[in-house]
Specification:
Number of strands: 7
Structural class: alpha/beta
Largest sheet: 5 strands, mixed
Number of domains: 2
Number of helices: 9
Helix content: 25-40%
Strand content: 15-25%
Length: 237
């Protein structure tokens, strides 16, 4: 079995699950490099962060639009428009919002600006390590759960019902899911990583284990001006 990793941003850096030869580990890393450096070329890592960014044009990335359509009518608002690359290097929110509007015709949400340093970190890492783009894939947890369940989740992940719904789906596909997630929450939950981050990272790791069942959004991803594919992956039932 090759290496399969699921990664989500958390307060202290990046939370991850890593599976290799049937053994799973998890933890919090301060940088994305600490997780991905040395990953085998045939490994697969899924991360909940935009990869491949626009630098011009008044339309969103196609993968964002398709993901939002897939999640309608309940979870589509969870897909934020990815910022343009120029906005990430602005000194404050007002400047970033202005730059994003000039380049894309859209403003920039506070939520997106809040993770701008994470987006920039991944963007710079992938551009500095070109082979990584063949192993690291963008994945939105709500799209992954939608693919596993055959439709969007009915409740928000931040509610008790939403947590129960997502755990039910994960247990169907992996009987060990609850054990791993419980152990991770005992070690990190509420401090370095929230419960929903841990659940999302596990869903991405589960998807990373089964590249033969992946679907792409879009089917033929375009590349950004730096040559990075603008795509999302998820796993079909």
């Amino acid at each position: 079995m090759t290496v399969a990793i699921g990664i989500d941003a958390c307060k202290d850096g990046w939370f991850y699950f890593r599976f290799e030869d049937g053994v799973g580990t998890f933890g919090v890393a301060p940088t994305i490099a600490a997780i991905l450096d040395g990953m085998p070329f045939d490994g697969r890592a899924l991360i909940d962060i935009p990869i491949g960014l626009k630098e011009r044009g008044k339309t969103e990335r196609e993968c964002d639009l398709l993901a939002r359509d897939l999640l309608r009518p309940r979870r589509h608002s969870s897909v934020f428009p990815a910022p343009c690359r120029q906005a990430l290097k602005q000194k404050d929110y007002a400047a970033a919002k202005d730059k994003n509007r000039k380049v894309t015709g859209r403003s920039l949400s506070r939520q997106t600006w809040g993770i701008a340093p994470k987006i920039l970190e991944v963007d710079e890492y992938v551009r500095a390590n070109p082979p990584v783009s063949d192993s690291l894939f963008e994945a939105h947890p709500e799209v992954v759960f939608c693919g596993l369940a055959g439709g969007p989740m009915s409740a928000s992940k931040n509610t008790r019902d939403g947590f129960t719904e997502r755990m039910t789906i994960l247990r169907i596909f992996d009987p060990d899911a609850e054990t791993y997630i419980s152990s991770a929450f005992l070690a990190y939950g509420g401090y370095e990583a929230s419960r929903d981050v841990i659940v999302d990272a596990y869903a991405l790791a589960l998807c990373a284990k089964h590249p033969g069942r992946w679907r792409l959004l879009p089917d033929e991803p375009p590349k950004d001006p730096r040559g990075l594919p603008m795509r999302m992956v998820y796993m079909a039932r």
